[in-house]
């Protein structure tokens, strides 16, 4: 297991407010069950010598890199401060609430006095100015790739991140990384090359993408994957196809999930302890411009402001704006203009992160913002939240069946086609139906969600049926209609016919007929997933202004940028985008002496 989180010494910059002397509560280990974001978990509070010595959980199923990280951070905070009155971890509010609630309950049982419940606020001790060669604004996937690349090029780097942990929404992503012509594809007999990757990305984006950026992405994805491997990433040899990937070129890390890239990049950062500073819970508020050049960023942390200068460059890597309901409604004049993208529709991203801060800062220094109406709606959100933390939704051998028991779309279609088809179904919802092909062992941990199918069934997030009849009962549809729907798909999967009326083709090495139980089924709804528009950049990741000129000193990478994906992003192209353009931004900024 990677040890990066332990290795990285982050300059949190938080002063501790000394705890007052406490009356002694009763020693012991107190266990309190609380409701987490994903599932209930137990908060264990250990008291020794009248002091809180440990706050932890051994059974939490919270997301790796996010909730799991927050439990650790908050546990440390509580022990440090000797009170349950500390602030939660920014970007993990539900998990924080649960940990604090469990701790309070435990302390009450132990007979702790009111000093163990007093509010303390950690004060920021950011210096008034911080200077390094390169400033990275936003420590998600693109930002960390940029930081490591700038460090490799010899620069000193400061990362400012508004959440209480690194990794942003990249932490919760599926981790699919599209790259062509890889040894993994060759081993499976999959023929691929950058031109094919380019062509499909352009086609998926309805040819509205910037071709120079798409060529750059397709030409550098494979070497960027290899770069991550050189940093310690393990790649699963089974190449897949993320939802709407259009081809079998999605490479997954091992362990699966975006948090693995973050762990690898954090480990790489930790190799440069003298040249990297990380400020968490520190929000960038505006760019600093001096004599026509961007030289730094103004930040705010716990009520204190500071200036962080980058003498060689500033890299914006603040992610998308999918969770900013007001902004997304304002710019929703494109392919979803008939749909209502208000707060009733969820978002799959970490909402505090995906607010579009970088776009708004860049706009103020005259950066060109392009394609803002190109919002990606993913068909596979969880009803109520829009999150995508449960049953595997990506890949093959899963059927989209509506509440009448009918298939209604080619499951291998691009995401805009899939989501439009879902919006046209009764109740704008559908059943995602899978069987044992996807979950051959219910007790095996699905590394993406960190849970087993057994857990998901227990939590009621997925339902199971041994027979088609039972499946039809769960779905409240006519069994013969359901059988006919599945059979239509199976005829293609068995290669009896080349395609069905929706255009589905069994052109993937994993495609199999779905013929027997156990079946696993979950209801799904469209969710806001990605924002393809953003800051205009060139292939050097330099930011372009509204007159078509480079803004000196300013770079951008990842979901904050526009142009790479056009109107519709292919599944698996965003992680590749972050790594390819993040690396480039880091190198370019470091060399901008
Ligand atoms: C559930 C889910 C599954 C996905 N699966 C895949 C997949 O399998 N393959 C794929 O290619 N793509 C996938 N995507 C899309 C992909 O994960 C994202 O597009 C990508 O990770 C974005 O990376 P980023 O670095 O640009 O942004 P992020 O990872 O979100 O990082 C941005 C960071 O900037 C910080 N920030 C924002 N504003 C400020 C500010 N003012 N000051 C300081 N910091 C700030 C944020 O807190 C955040 O940490 C998925 C997305 C989701 C949500």
Structure description:
- This protein is of the alpha+beta class.
- The protein folds into three domains: 17-121, Sufe protein. Chain: A (Alpha-Beta Complex), CATH 3.90.1010.20; 129-320 and 356-374 and 532-590, FAD/NAD(P)-binding domain, CATH 3.50.50; 376-528, Alpha-Beta Complex (Flavocytochrome C3, Chain A, domain 1).
- It contains 15 helices and 26 strands.
- The two termini are 38 Å apart.
- Mean pLDDT is 93; it is low at 1-22.
- Residues 137-143, 160-163, 168-170, 172-176, 242, 258, 283-284, 317-319, 348-349, 353, 357-358, 388, 530, 558-560, 572-575, 578 line the site of flavin-adenine dinucleotide.
- The site of flavin-adenine dinucleotide has 41 residues, from helix 4, strand 12, helix 10 and helix 15.
Question: Briefly, what is this?
Answer:
With 593 residues, the protein is an alpha+beta fold. Helix content is 28%, strand content 23%.
Keywords:
single chain, 593 residues, alpha+beta, Sufe protein. Chain: A, FAD/NAD(P)-binding domain, Flavocytochrome C3, Chain A, domain 1, 3 domains, eight-stranded mixed beta sheet, five-stranded antiparallel beta sheet, globular, disordered N terminus, binds flavin-adenine dinucleotide
């Amino acid at each position: 297991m990677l040890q990066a989180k332990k290795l990285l010494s982050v300059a949190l910059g938080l002063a501790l407010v000394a705890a007052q002397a406490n009356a002694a509560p009763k020693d012991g280990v107190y266990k309190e069950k609380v409701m987490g974001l994903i599932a209930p978990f137990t908060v264990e509070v250990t008291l020794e010598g009248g002091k809180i010595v440990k706050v932890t959980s051994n059974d939490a199923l919270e997301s790796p890199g996010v909730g799991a990280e927050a439990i650790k951070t908050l546990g440390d905070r509580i022990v440090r401060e000797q009170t349950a009155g500390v602030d939660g971890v920014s970007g993990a509010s539900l998990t924080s609430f649960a940990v604090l609630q469990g701790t309070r309950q435990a302390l009450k049982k132990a007979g702790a006095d009111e000093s163990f419940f007093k509010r303390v606020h950690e004060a920021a001790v950011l210096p008034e100015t911080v200077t390094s060669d390169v400033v990275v604004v936003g420590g998600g996937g693109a930002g960390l790739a940029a930081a490591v690349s700038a460090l490799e090029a010899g620069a000193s780097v400061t990362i400012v991140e508004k959440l209480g942990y690194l990794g942003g929404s990249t932490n919760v992503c599926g981790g699919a990384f599209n790259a062509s012509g890889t040894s993994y594809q060759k081993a499976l007999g999959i023929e691929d090359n950058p031109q094919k990757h380019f062509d499909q990305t352009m086609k998926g984006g309805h040819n509205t993408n910037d071709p120079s950026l798409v060529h750059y992405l397709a030409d550098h994805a494979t070497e960027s994957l290899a770069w991550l491997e050189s940093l310690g990433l393990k790649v699963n040899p089974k190449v897949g196809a993320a939802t709407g990937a259009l081809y079998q070129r999605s490479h997954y890390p091992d362990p699966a999930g975006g948090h693995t890239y973050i762990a690898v990049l954090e480990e790489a950062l930790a190799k440069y302890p003298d040249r990297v500073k990380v400020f968490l819970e520190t929000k960038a508020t505006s760019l600093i411009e001096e004599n026509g050049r961007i030289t730094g960023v103004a930040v705010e942390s716990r009520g204190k402001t500071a200036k962080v200068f980058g003498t060689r460059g500033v890299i914006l890597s603040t992610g998308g704006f999918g969770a900013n309901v007001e902004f997304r409604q304002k710019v929703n004049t494109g392919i979803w203009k008939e749909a209502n993208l208000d707060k009733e529709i969820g978002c799959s991203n970490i909402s505090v992160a995906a607010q579009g801060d970088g776009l708004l800062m860049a706009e103020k220094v005259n950066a060109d913002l392009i394609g803002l109406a190109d919002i990606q709606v993913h068909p596979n959100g969880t009803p109520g939240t829009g999150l995508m933390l449960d049953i595997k939704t990506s890949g093959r051998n899963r059927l989209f069946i509506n509440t009448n028991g009918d298939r209604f779309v080619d499951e291998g279609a691009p995401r805009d086609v899939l989501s439009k088809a879902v919006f046209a179904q009764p109740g704008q919802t559908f059943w995602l139906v899978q069987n044992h092909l996807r979950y051959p062992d219910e007790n095996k941990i699905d590394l993406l969600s960190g849970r087993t199918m057994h857990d998901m069934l227990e939590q009621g997030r997925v339902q199971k049926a041994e027979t088609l009849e039972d499946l039809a009962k769960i779905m409240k549809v006519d069994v013969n209609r359901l059988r006919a729907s599945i059979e239509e798909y199976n005829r293609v999967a068995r290669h009896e016919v080349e395609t069905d009326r929706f255009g589905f083709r069994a052109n993937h090495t994993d495609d199999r007929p779905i013929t027997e139980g156990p079946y696993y089924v979950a209801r799904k709804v469209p969710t806001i997933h990605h924002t393809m528009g953003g800051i205009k950049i060139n292939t050097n990741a330099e930011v372009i202004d509204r007159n078509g000129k480079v803004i000196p000193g300013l770079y951008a990478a990842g979901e904050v940028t526009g142009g790479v994906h056009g109107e519709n992003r292919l599944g698996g192209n965003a992680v590749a985008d972050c790594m390819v353009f993040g690396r480039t931004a880091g190198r370019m900024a470091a060399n901008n002496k």
